[in-house]
Amino acid sequence: MEHKTNKLTLKKALLIYIVLFYAAWAVYELLCRKLLDSAINNDLIVEMCETVIKNLVWTLPAVLLIHKYSSDVLVRLKEMFTAKVNWLKYLPVFAFFTVYILVNAYSQYGEIKIQRNFGIASIIMVFFVGLEEEMVFRGWLLNATVNEDKKWQYIILNALMFLMIHFPIWIRNGIFVSSFTHFGFIIILLLSVIFSTEFLRSKNILVPIALHMYWDLLASMFVG
């Protein structure tokens, strides 16, 4: 009976979290980010401010919730950082990311070179976005909902939720429609599936974090 009550409590916590999480992010991207950009004309400072905000609104709540519901999630907080990983197994994934990004960069620009706008602000973004997004979407949301019997249903659901977090950014940048008409959204879904699959396989959150960071690093350097 107690186990059932805990499950219901977890579902309620997930629902509240999801509603507040998406609402807060939409308000920030569509309203606060514009004010931040106009008030601070410095990409590095803006990126640092956003990093602080996202860690307070994204990472910290996710970590606290994983810890609170440790008996209900698939992988406990401590275990997801300490589970042994054979990193050599992931070399093909890193290699695939490298080839895909470089080919994409060459197809767009006719050459492969580091983008002029790549700098410290980009590096900060790369490092923290991978950590923040993976702790929320794989470490918490997937970890708290996945069922081994219906694993792919939850991986796909998680991918859709991961896609939705990009909507406010695309709206702010004026690329919401083009992200669908040019099928850019598909790569977001595929990346989410890869990150989710590797997290469930390794039971270590550092795996999707590393993959996510590497993808963002290459994309920032060569595609922009």
Keywords:
10 helices, 224 residues, mainly alpha, globular, 0% strand
Task: Give a verbal description of the structure.
This protein is mostly helical and 224 residues long. The chain contains 10 helices and no strands. The protein has helices at 2-39, 43-68, 79-82, 91-109, 120-145, 151-164, 167-173, 176-181, 184-202, 206-223. It is globular and about 50 Å long.
Quick recap:
This protein is mostly helical and 224 residues long. It has one domain. The protein is 79% helix and 0% strand.
Which blocks of ≥5 consecutive residues have pLDDT under 50? 1-5
Total DSSP helices: 10
Strand content: under 5%
How far from one another are the termini?
Answer: 53 Å
Major β-sheet profile: none
Shape: globular
According to DSSP, the number of beta strands is 0
The helix/strand order is HHHHHHHHHH
Helix content: over 70%
What is the alpha-carbon Rg in Å?
18 Å
Class by SSE composition: mainly alpha
Number of domains in the coordinates?
A: 1
Mean pLDDT across the residues is: 92
